[in-house]
Amino acid sequence: MSHRTLAAHALIAGYERGRRVLDGASLTVPAGRRVAILGANGSGKTTLLRCLSGALKPSSGAVTVDDVPLEHSRRGLRAHRQEVQLVLQDPDDQLFSASVAQDVSFGPINLGLAEDEVRDRVAEALRLLAVDALADRPTHQLSYGERKRVAIAGAVAMRPCVLLLDEPTAGLDPSAVAEALAALTRLQGAGSTVVMSTHDVDLALAWADEVAVVVDRAVVQGPPEVLLGDDDLLARARLDRPWALTVGARLRELGLLSGGPLPRDAAALLAALPERPGVVA
After folding, report:
1. Model pTM?
2. Which of 30, 69, 200, 211 is deepest in the core (most CB within 10 A)?
């Protein structure tokens, strides 16, 4: 895997004649960064991901990798999908083989790779997603969280530069969310740029290096603590302010937090509190 910069430029896209889901949407996914895409239901998050992956051709605009435009030809899409992989929200839309190992091997086999190379890629992907113990398990016997991670492993086996994940933590209990996020950290450490769509503003604030809010058929991109603290933007996007920013701002008003960026999660918030109430260093 190697890092590349994926970008969308002034995309116009939709599914019905005359109805635009995206209208001039632009986004840059810098190499090696964690990017969270947020927005209300129907805002266009999944449409944006599908355009970035090549699954949907926009009416206008361009998708580029390192400034090279995606060509929607068979050859162009095949090359793009070796660089960019999309994992859908419902893992059952992507799992269809008898066993976990067979499912994860599907993409590398279709690349025409040698058997040894396929075996190495499958083993690596299963290890990174911490599902190597499930290699021989029938996919229908997996829990929902396990199916999610196996679906991601199938994309990872293609060794893409950019992973696009549509709601990877949706429907998971807290333990499974923690496992999924740990897996994403390992993927980033192994050389993948990770992009996720989510409704969870608290998760986005704690996890992402940058956020992109899909609102009014366009994209507003910037630092999490800035965009997720913008009440006007959040209201337009029908999103709530993250609790850490709300609590942090109130504690600062009470003189319990010093200046600088507000904490972005519970651990950082607790670490920022003074040891003696009412005394701020």
Report:
1. 0.90
2. 211
Residue with tokens 């899909």: 214
Please state, in angstroms and rounded to a whole number, the distance separating the CA atoms of residues 244 and 260: 14
Q: pLDDT tens digits for 86-124?
A: 999 888 887 887 899 999 999 899 888 899 999 999 999
Dig out the tokens for 53 from the structure: 């992956």
End-to-end CA distance of the chain: 44
The DSSP output letter for 241 is: P
Going by their DSSP bridges, the two strands 34-38 and 193-198 should be labelled as: parallel
Q: Are strands 60-65 and 6-13 parallel, antiparallel or unpaired?
A: antiparallel
Query: How far, in Å, are 50, 74, 247 from residue 229 at the CA level?
Result: 28, 43, 12
Structure tokens of 279? 């005394």
> How remote is the C-alpha of 275 from its chain's centroid?
37
Residue 241, pLDDT > 90, answer yes
Of the candidates 34, 83, 65, the residue with the CA atom closest to the CA atom of residue 184: 34
- Taking residue 207's Cβ as centre, other Cβ atoms within 10 Å add up to 22
